[in-house]
Amino acid sequence: MARQGMAMALLVVLLAAGCWATADAAAQLSKLPVNLQVTASPTSGQVLHGGEDVITVTWSLNATAGTDAEYKKVKVSLCYAPVSQKEREWRKTHDDLKKDKTCQFKVTEQAYASTGNVTYRVALDIPTATYYVRAYALDASGTQVAYGQTATGYTFNVVSITGVTTSIKVAAGVFSAFSIASLAFFFFIEKRKKNN
């Protein structure tokens, strides 16, 4: 009886350890199948402005991909291109997707369909950089099980908002003109007083 209890306890410990290791193990990009075809509307090299321009991203299941029964959601992100990762550790690509910092800006996460698209206005807080688009197929637990990204060499640029709007420029111009006029007026008054 004691031997049976020990065997049962050992089995529970081994199962728990196996589950913990599986839960702790992150998906690796190099091991994911490239089962999604992804395109984006900007032309390669196009410059987009935060808060103004719109991107349409389209994805579909590759014809050779096989079954997509385990795909429950699709997550689309903007990813830093290699040129925008140089000497920036906080943007670096890592094969372990829990450590990967390439795709930090979510475009959408929605229920999976074998074909789909999303229209996304470039957010105001997207940093100035060069980007491409990647889509992940997620299983029921939210783990990446497949992916796709825009073609190699395809990138576009985003220029973030500077915070200087047209109204601020107009106000600065008006105040500058007022200060110059005030200076000229007081200079004229002082000169007149001296002459008297």
TrEMBL record:
This is Uncharacterized protein. It comes from Avena sativa.
